[in-house]
Amino acid sequence: MDHTTPGDRLPAEAVTLLEALLADDTPAFRALRAQIPHLRVTGGCGCPCASLDFRLDETAAVPAAPAAGCPAAEATVLDADGEPIGGVLVFVSEGQLSGLEVYTWADEPITRLPSPDRLQP
Fold first, then answer.
1. What average pLDDT score do residues 44-60 get?
2. If phi over 0 gives left and psi between -120 and 50 gives alpha, with beta otherwise, what is residue 54?
3. How much of the chain, in percent, has pLDDT values that exceed 90?
4. Is there a domain that residue 60 lies in?
5. Number of structural domains, the chain?
6. Considering only CA atoms, which of 97, 70, 71, 86 is closest in space to residue 119?
7. Can you list the alpha helix ranges (DSSP code H) found in 5-113?
8. Cα separation of 76 and 62, whole Å?
9. Is 117 helix (H, G, I), strand (E, B) or coil?
10. Is 34 within a domain?
11. How many angstroms separate the CA atoms of 4 and 116, rounded?
């Protein structure tokens, strides 16, 4: 993934991934998807993984109803051969999208955000 710094808009890969993970047509997911254009990067993980933390510009979008449970969405990440190699989690805090965690089950971190075609719910 390209280097992002705090204050940046979400990279296109993160937008695409969040839209795919929040694709259900429920009121809560519709409200969360409406927040995506108004998110700004606040940081990431200390390791070289592709995880991102972000915040919502509340003047541009309203928080969703608080999600029951955490994470709000998750999926398994598959490699090019269709084998599971890790996962991705979407976090919500007080009705606001707050993070995208990408983790691996191997020794090497997943350093690029996976494309939606590499996800298994």
1. 86
2. beta
3. 62
4. yes
5. 1
6. 86
7. 12-21, 27-35
8. 29
9. helix
10. yes
11. 20
Domain annotation covers residue 5: no
pLDDT of residue 1: 47
**Which region holds residue 94: left if phi is over 0, alpha if psi is between -120 and 50, else beta?**
left
Handedness of CA 35, 37, 41, 46 (dihedral sign): positive
Quote the pLDDT of residue 48: 84
* Residue 32 belongs to domain spanning: 12-120
Q: How confident is the model at residue 67 (pLDDT cuts 50, 70, 90)?
A: low
Of 50, 28, 44, nearest to 98 by C-alpha is 44
Residue 106 binned pLDDT confidence (cut-offs 50, 70, 90): confident
- CA-CA distance, 111 to 77, in Å (whole number)? 12
Q: Is residue 3 part of a domain?
A: no
| CA 90 to the chain's CA centroid | 5
Residue 109 has pLDDT above 70, yes or no: yes
- Mean pLDDT in residue range 24-43: 92
In the sheet that holds 73-78, the strands lie side by side as: 39-44, 52-56, 96-104, 84-93, 73-78, 119-120
**Overall average pLDDT of the 45-69 stretch:** 78
